[in-house]
Amino acid sequence: MLVAKSVTISGAGADVLAVDGNNSSRVFRIVFSGETVTISGFTIRNGHAGTTGGGVDNENPATLIITNCAVSSNSAGLGGSAFNSGMLTIAGSTFSGNSATEGGGAYNSGGGTLTINNSIISGNTATTAGGWYPQPGRSYGYEQHV
Predict the structure, then answer these.
(1) What's the whole-model pTM score?
(2) Which of 57, 70, 116, 130 is most deeply buried (CB count within 10 A of its CB)?
């Protein structure tokens, strides 16, 4: 699904609604820089891209917020579940079972900023950095509440 403008895409819950790439295409691609896209309340699964972001591709520097989602079983060359070169915030979500050459859970690149709050990133695989790939020189923030 190509996302070409600022938008909030909301579902009834990750246990109720899934968007499935059928292992043949990425699930979401943010196509323009400067936009703000919020994805909330569903499962993003079975996305595939030979290049970047099997589940979600934020290759153009937009602001992307993923909340209360399950992101699973996606694959790509870089960032099995998500590729980011903009501002990515992950909150209240689980990224699991994704795979990539680099950054099975997520790949942060191109001056991107990655913030993870109250989320689980586990069981992802990659040749380099199964959980997430932190490209040197980039900004990261983490907040964990137990």
Answers:
(1) 0.89
(2) 57
Residue 143 falls inside a structural domain: no
Backbone conformation region of residue 19, classed left if phi is above 0, alpha if psi is from -120 to 50, else beta: beta
Two structure tokens written together for 123: 């069981």
Residue 136 lies in a domain: no
Domain that holds residue 35: 2-130
Q: How confident is the model at residue 51, as a pLDDT? A: 95
Q: Which residues contact 114 (CB under 8 A, 6 or more apart)?
A: 84, 88, 90, 106, 108, 132, 134, 138, 139, 140, 141
30 occurs within a structural domain: yes
How many folded domains does the chain comprise? 1
Give the Cα separation of 72 and 94 in Å (integer). 8
pLDDT band per the 50, 70, 90 thresholds, residue 60: confident
